[in-house]
Inverse folding.
């Protein structure tokens, strides 16, 4: 996860983050990740996606407490304003007659805060740092500058399927129920996330298939055009610090008794 002034990296059991402070120094923190339903998170289809997402959200305040200098993507009045406007417009659209186009617009409104956040070049550059640091490590290289700023496992690959599945699900819900309540709509949202996550996992297991390449294409273009920028050497330095820390704590976790 890109921060406004650094990078948060998830490992199998732990997290690590690095951020540059106002004096120009790099501060680092790490810890164990919160785990929900450990018996289900890695094995249960349709449940593992939402569980992993919930764990990621639970981690955010922990990171903010442990690394005080870190600045989260939504710590900006413009992003908060976009959240309020998107929510208000979405509620207004719910008052009209449901249609495929209306549902797509409502689903796309959820992306507005993220797009506003990525208008900050530093955030988009640190997103590029994330991909380059991890991509270089996976390729066995010590030079993250040589890696591409796009990565095949980026969460942007979930955007298109989630938009389509969410719009289709809400449209079917409106056809099935006269006045769907918030619980029913939330259930459809969770189901859309679950299906998108399963499609993502399938594409990772079958990367050379035509379907997997088609699945990744929209996300790759989102990264290339909007979500990532080429980072500076100073920003890459922060990414390397975060990567070294996650490798250190994961190695310690492997060596510690269970």
């Amino acid at each position: 996860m890109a921060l406004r002034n650094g990078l948060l990296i998830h490992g199998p059991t732990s997290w690590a983050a690095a951020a540059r402070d106002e004096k120009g120094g790099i501060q680092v923190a790490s810890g164990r990740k919160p785990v929900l339903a450990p018996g289900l998170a890695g094995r249960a289809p349709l449940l593992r996606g939402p569980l992993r997402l919930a764990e990621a959200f639970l981690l955010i305040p922990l990171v903010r407490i442990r690394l005080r200098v870190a600045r989260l993507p939504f710590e900006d009045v413009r992003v908060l304003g976009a959240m309020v406007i998107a929510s208000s417009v979405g509620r207004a659209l719910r008052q009209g007659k449901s249609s495929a186009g209306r549902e797509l617009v409502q689903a796309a409104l959820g992306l507005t805060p993220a797009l506003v956040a990525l208008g900050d070049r530093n955030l988009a550059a640190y997103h590029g740092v994330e991909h380059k640091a991890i991509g270089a490590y996976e390729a066995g290289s010590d030079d993250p500058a040589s890696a591409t700023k796009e990565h095949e496992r980026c969460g942007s690959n979930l955007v298109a399927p989630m938009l389509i599945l969410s719009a289709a699900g809400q449209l079917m819900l409106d056809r099935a129920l006269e006045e769907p309540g918030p619980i029913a709509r939330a259930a459809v949202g969770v189901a859309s996330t679950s299906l998108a996550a399963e499609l993502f996992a399938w594409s990772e297991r079958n990367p050379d298939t035509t379907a997997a390449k088609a699945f990744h294409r929209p996300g790759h273009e989102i990264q290339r055009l909007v979500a990532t920028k080429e980072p500076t050497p100073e920003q890459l330095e922060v990414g390397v610090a975060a990567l070294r820390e996650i490798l250190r704590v994961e190695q310690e976790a492997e060596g510690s008794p269970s």
